[in-house]
Amino acid sequence: MAVKNMLNDIPSNEVHLLKGPLKKRFEINKSYIMSLTNENLLRTFYLESGLWSYSGNGGTTSATTTSMEGPDQWHWGWESPTCELRGHIMGHWLSAAARIYSQTKDPLVKAKADYIVSELARCQEANGGEWLAAFPETYMHRIAKGNFVWAPHYTIHKLLMGLNEMYTLGANKTALQLMKGIAAWFYRWTSSFTQEQMDELLDLETGGMLETWADLYGITGDIHHLELIRKYDRRRFFDALLEGQDVLTNKHANTQIPEVLGAARAWEVTGEERYRKVVEAFWTCAVEQRGYVATGAGDNGELWMPAGEMSARLGVGQEHCCNYNMMRLAHMLLRWTGDPAYADYWERRFYNGVLAHQHHETGMISYFLGMGPGSKKNWGSRTQHFWCCHGTLMQANAAYEQQIYLQDKAGIAICQWLPSQMKLMVEGQQICLRIEQEGQHGIYPLNNWSVEGMTTITKVNIPSIPTHRPDSFIYTITVQVEKPSVFSLKLRMPWWMVGGPKIVVNGEQFSAQNMTAMTFVELNREWQDGDVVSVEFKKHLVTEVLPGNSEMYAFLDGPIVLAGITSAERILIGDPQNPSSIVEPDQERNHSWWNPGYYKTKKLDHGIRFIPLYEVQDETYSVYFPIH
Hints:
Oligomer: single chain
Helix content: 25-40%
Low-confidence stretches: 59-68
Structural class: alpha+beta
Mean pLDDT: 95
Radius of gyration: 25 Å
Largest sheet: 8 strands, antiparallel
Distance between the termini: 57 Å
């Protein structure tokens, strides 16, 4: 039974990023994804199915291993042929490729992804028609006997997720057949297990197996796939959440978040209220009662930090998979409830998670993101690491578009303020919305050189820009309709907004009763082709206290967490309720664009510069500082 949402997704192929810094990040990720060779992505699948082997120089004196087929060209790290987790990147890659194709309709992406699915089908056939993995079936038999293997369920989940998105977004019918074959293997394998045996299995890292069975059941309606949902219901964990227990602190967040995503998807395809209650209990425990650091993270080193007591846990920092999967959960909750608080949470983790974990020149990943003194981003390589976060990096940076626009019965909601364009058929006519961001009279995160900026600094017969860096985010929404059309346009008022927004429709000021932060403002009218809505949000530099230490603070410039460039803990001087007593603007403009988030300290013999956390590359930094 499908459930009814307050907001619904708009098809990925109807939303496109506009040219600019976010599109550049997307393209860097796309370029990296396309650079990974078919042979290397498939190598361990070929190996397991008997379609490839390698013996080096074979003991001869004339053979060589320096060709393109030699080991120095292979994928290593967690994708090494000797690593038990091998094959997980395949699923991440398929998910990212499917979403990129859905948005861009790039035929090269489609051709590459389709070829890889066809080769996976060849591997599955060689394995007997059901089993498909980069490791042997014996891994599953070993964990069934209580022996440790590094997360084979997790790896299968990633593969199933990628195949699902190749089917749903990539229009590849073979992918669904592969999923059905894998499901048949698991249905038979689990059929003889008692509930106690299944509970023991589920206490290992099963990733999002529940979610993929729910995805499959949502497509097929097959009773066997519903039974797999029942089998992979982790009752020990879910029942404890429903009882109000804190079964998160010091537990592996990387395991638990995908399991709860599974419960969320199970509710969507079965309508069983228990699953929704599990998700709500988890969010209460993980976010509302626990709190989080300035970036939105409640985890450190993949483990949940104690509720409200995080000052002793400023270690390696938040982990990218946790960040990405919590964003996915927030998106689901936003759809279910229509509550903009979930979009606010998503935004915080987008700027200070997805963008901050990605190297903005190479596109590579920092597994962890530290918050404390002496933090440093340790970047992965293109083919030598392949951590789990390497995989979610590819997915996250292919999915910027997912939460920008959502739809309800009355119209369209703008949930994220990211420059983009949306086209949607509504009651037989096409509606187009276009969000553009003003980068001269307002600030524009990640902005860089642009023709607009060059025009601003060369022409003297146009309105002058502010003398100093503005404290506003300014957007223009252009409406295109084939004929006059009545619908509601909901605008999210972000959590960081100071005062009320300035909203102007076709040159006339708009006002409403409730235009406060963390709400939606609704513009319900008959829209004409070419209507223009301008929206301005004021922001201030603010501080946020570290949960568990009332003397430690982070700085945020609107939604942007700042990093102080220093290798040691430094005491800052001033009033944390008045950040301008502590820092002042620094390097506010670079050539033809403003630099949001650039500040420097006052009253220190050796000053500290602050920049956005997402701009840190190889510098040593800290997010939290004692203020006296």
